[in-house]
Amino acid sequence: MLITINRLKAWLFTPALLLLSNAQAIAQEAERSSINMPIGVTPVSQDVYGLHMTMFWWCVAIGVVVFGVMFYSMIVHRKSNGAKASNFHDSLGLEITWTVLPFVILIIMAIPATSSLVKLYDTSESEVDVVITGYQWYWGYEYLDQDVKFFSRLSTPQEQIYNQAPKGENYLLEVDEPLVIPINKKVRFLVTSNDVIHAWWVPDLAVKRDAIPGYINESWARVEKPGTYRGVCAELCGKDHGFMPVVVKAVEQDEYDTWLTERREAAAKIRELAKKTFSLEELMAQGEEVYNKACVACHGVNGEGGVGKAIAGSPIATGDIAAHIDIIVNGSKNNPLMAAYKETLSEVDTAAVITYQRNAFGNNKGDVVQPIDILKFKQGK
Amino acid sequence: MIKNFWKDNSTPVLCVKLGATVIGMFIFAIFIMPPLYTLFCDITGLNGKTGGQYNIETKKGVDSFGVDTSREIKVQFIATNNETMPWEFKPIDKTVIVHPGEATVIKYYAHNPTDRAMIGQAVPSVVPYKAAGYFHKTECFCFNSQPLQAGESAELGLSFIVDIDIPKYVKTITLSYTLFDITGNSEENKISQNTVVPEVLQLVSIN
Amino acid sequence: MAHGPAKGFSRWLYTTNHKDIGSMYLWFSFAMFLLGGVFALVIRAELFEPGLQIVEPGFFNQMTTMHGLVMVFGAVMPAFVGLANWMIPMMVGAPDMALPRMNNWSFWILPFAFAMMVATLFMEGGGPNFGWTFYAPLSTTYAPPSVTFFIFAVHIMGASSIMGSINIIATILNMRAPGMTLMKMPLFVWTWLITAYLLIAVMPVLAGVVTMMLMDIHFGTSFFDAAGGGDPVLFQHVFWFFGHPEVYIMILPAFGIVSAIIPTFARKPLFGYSSMVYATASIAFLSFIVWAHHMFTVGLPIAGELFFMYATMLIAVPTGVKVFNWVTTMFKGSMTFETPMLFSIAFVILFTIGGFSGLMLAIAPADFQYHDTYFVVAHFHYVLVPGAIFSITAGVYYWLPKWCGNMYNETMGKVQFWLAFIGLNVTFFPMHFVGLAGMQRRVPDYNQFFADFNMISSMGAFLFGAAQLMLLYNVISTIVSGKKASDEVWEDPEGLEWTVPSPAPYHTFSTPPPIK
Fold first, then answer.
1. What is the pTM of this model?
2. Which chain B residues have a beta carbon less than 8 Å from that of A218?
3. I want to staple C253 with a disulfide (CB 3.0 to 4.6 A). Which of B50, B108, C80, C239 is the partner?
4. What's the ipTM?
5. Residue A318 sits in which domain range?
6. Sequence spans of domains, chain C
7. Is 90 exceeded by the pLDDT of residue C42?
8. Contact C57 A114 (CB under 8 A)
9. What superfamily does domain C19-499 belong to in CATH?
10. Which residues of C394-408 are buried (b: 16+ CB within 10 A; e: fewer)?
11. Do C309 and A47 touch (CB under 8 A)?
C-alpha cells in the first residue's frame, strides 16, 4: 500500500519524472524501453523496429502539417478575433492533391513493408526445428529429430499473484523450463495447439504466431545475441491467458549441445525411475512437491477444494485406486477443468501425487502407488 | 392526419428487396462462405489442405518412373493429440528424404490405452503453405476415422508423392497430424456392434 | 389525429412516433453506456496495480467480453439509431419514418436482448468469457453453457439493427420532401444511408456466424471444429467479414454529425460536400475487402497478407480526404467554440491520431509485434471513443435545444468537455506505450514493468466515468430547468430541422416543406 501511495505521489507531484525516466530508458540502449517496441535481437525484429519508427515519423510529420493548419485557423480565424467567414466550399484542385499525395506516401511506405514481409515469411533452410504446442495454460516444446520434449509453465508462486509475497523482477514472465535455442542458427518454430487458439509471442524475436488446433503455423528467428528473452501468450485462451509466459534462452552452440545431451539423459533417467520401487516416505515427499505445483491452485493447500472438488475425504482419493489413476492420467470425463496429466506429469510424479493424495489431508488410506503401476495403466495392461 | 404527400410510394417493394438482401447475406454466410473458404484453401494451400490426384508425367530430367532424382526433399512428420484424446499417437518414421515424383510409404503408430472402444480422426496440416498443393496423398489413414478397441494398437499407413513441379526453393515439407477424439459425435452404434476394425487393417495391408 | 402524445407508460410502449422512439433509443443507449462503463471500471480497477486484487481471472474475462459487447451493440449502435430516428425525418422533410410500427418493434426487442445477455452473468458457469470477438473453439467447445443465451441475444440485436436499417433506407429513399435531391441531403443523412446498407449487408453475416456456432454446439455440425473437417480459422474469416464493416458502422454516422456541426460554428459551408459523399462510399466499399488485417498472425499465405495490407493502407486515402475537408471548412471561417464544436474538434484531432495508429497497424510485418497488445486497445479506443462517443455527445448538445426546447448551460457543457477530453487521453494514451513495450490484451495481471502507465490509465478511466455522469446531469437539468431556446438555436445553422419551432412539435412536416 505504501508503495502505491509513493508511486501515486510521484505521478501526481512530478509529472516531469515521466519524461526524465523515459529519456533515461532510451539513453541506456541495453535497457528495455518502457514506451517503445524493443529493437530485438534478430535481423527480422530490427527490420520491424525500423519499419515501425519510419511509420511513426511519417505519422508525426503528417500530423504536424494537418494539426498545424487546424490550430492556426482555430487561433486566427475565430469570431472573437473579428474574423469574417469566407464562403469558399469547393476546389477540385485541392481535392485531387490530397487524394494523390497520400496515395504516393502510401506507396513509399508499402515498399519496405513488402520486403520485410517476404523476409519474415522465408522459413526455408532452417537448422533447428522446434514444435511449439499451446495448452490451457502452458506451452509444450519438442525438438524435432532430437528426441527432446518438455513443458514450460509459469513459475511465479501463487502468493506473489495474490499479493501475499513481494513480486519478483520477472513476475509473470518466468517459467520452470525455458526454451533453449542456439544463437546464429536459423530456428524454425512450428506452432500448433492442443485445445483453443493461443499465440506464441516473443517481442525481442518479433515472432508472433497463432497456435490453432488441427493446424500448423511456422515462423523463424536467428538470434544474434545470447540472453533470456521473455514473451507471453497473445491470444485470449481462457481463464489463465495472462499466466502462460514464454521464456527463450539463446545460448552458444556448445552450451546448447550440452543442454540437449543433459535433457536426453534426464529423460532416460525418468524412464528408468519409472521402473524403480519407492518407499512411502519418498513418494509422500515427492507427492507433496508435485501437489503444490500442479493441484494446489484448484484443490486447495489442505485439499479442501476450491475451483476443483475437495481431495480430503473425496470418494476418488479414498476409493478405487484404478479410478484415481484414471482421473489423473486421463482427466475427468464430466468436468473439462480437471485436465489429463498423462503428458505433463512423469510416471514417478503421478505415482507420488496419487500416493500423497491418498495419505494426506486425513485420507490416511495407507496405499502406495508405484510408478510401474502408472506405466502399466498408461500402456493399458 | 398525416397526408401521404410523397408520390410514387415504392416502400413495400423496397422492403421486399432489402429483406431479400438480408436473407441472401444470411445464406451467403452459412452456405457460401465455408465452401468458398475451402476453395480458397485448396488454391493457396492455407490450412494445409493437400493436393489432389497425382498423374505421372514424363518431363526433362525425370526418369521413366516420373522421379526427379536430382532433387531431394526432406519430409518431416509431427503428431499432436487434441486435449480430450487419450491415445498414444506418434510417427514411426519421423523424417524421410524423398525425390519428387517418388511414391513413399510411412507409418504412424496409434494405441488406445483406455478401457473403451474409441474413434479418432486425424486432421492433416502442411507447411509451408506453398508446398501443400504439391503434396499428394495416395493413401492416408486421415481419409477415414480410426476406430480402436480398448487396449488395441495399430500402425496407420500413409503413402504420398511430392509433385515434381514443386518450386525449387522448397527443401523441407512438414506434415502435422492432430488426432481428435470423435467417439461421441460419430456413429456410436457402429463400434459397439462391429468389434473388428477392418478399415485400419485393410489400409495397413495395402501399404 | 394530429394531436399530442398519449399519456403514461402506454405512450412509450405503443408509440410509433419517430421522436418518441428516438428518445427511447437514446436513453436506452445511455443506460447501456453506463453499464458498459461500469464493466470497464471493474477492468481498470483490477489493472490499477499488478497482482490480483478485486476479481478472479475468469470473471475478468467476462468483464472484458461484456464491456465490448455492451458498448458496441448496446451503447454506440442504438445511440446512432436514436439520432437517426430523431433527425433523419426532420432533415429530409418527412412527417415520420417510413415504417413506424416496425420502428416501435425494432426498439422494443432491444431491452429483452440485453436483459438476456446481462442475465448470463448470473448463470452457472458465468457469462460469455471469450472476448467480444468470440473466437471458436473458445466460444464453442470450451464455452460456458450460457453461450446459447448470448447467441440468442446477438440474434435479437441483429434483427433490431436490420429492421432499423430497412426503416432508415426506406425513409431516406422514399420520404424526402419534393425537391430534396440526394445531393442536397445533409451529410448525416448520407452517412446513415451508407451505414444502413452496410448493416443490411453484414448483420446477417453476424447472425450466420452465431447460427453456425449454435449448430456446432447443439446440433453436431462442425463448421469450426477441425475434428469434423471444419476449421477454426473459418470462424475468424466470417466474423471479421462482419466485424470490419461493423467498425465503420460505428464511425460513419459520426462523420455525418461532425460535418453538420463544424460548418455551423465555423459559419462557413462544408468544404467539399460531394467529395465527402464519395469518400464515405469508398470507405464503405473498402471495408468489405480488408477483414483479414485482423488476422495477420493466423498464418495467411504471403499473397493474401500483402493484399490485405495494401487494401487496408488504401483506406487512409478517403479518410484523409475527410479530415482535410473538415480542416479546410474551419480555415478562414469565423469560429466560436461552444460545447458541440469543442467535441467535434476533439473528434477530428483524436480520430486522426487513432487513424495514424491504424495506419501503423496496417503494416503487416509491424503488426506481428502490435497484434493483440495494448497498442491495439489504444488504437481502437482512440477511434471509437472520440469517434463514436464524442460525436454522439456533440450531437446531443447540438440538437438537445431542438428536442426539449431548452438551452443547456454552456459553462457546464464546457466543463464536461474538458473532463471527458482529459479523462480520455489520460486513459488511453499510455496504452500505446504499454502495448509497444510488450503488454498483451485481455489479461487481469501484468509485470511491474507496466505498472506506472496502467495506474495512470486507471485514474483516467475513473475521471472519464465521472465526466459521463456530468453529461447525464447536464442533459437532465437542461430538460428540467434550462433557459428557453430560440427556434434557430445557433447562428444561422444549415438544415430543415432548424425551421421548426423549439421544442420540435410532436408531428413535424405534415405538409412537405419548401426546399431551396
1. 0.88
2. 127-128, 174
3. C80
4. 0.92
5. 274-378
6. 19-499
7. yes
8. no
9. Cytochrome c oxidase-like, subunit I domain (1.20.210.10)
10. bbbbbbbbbbbbbbb
11. no
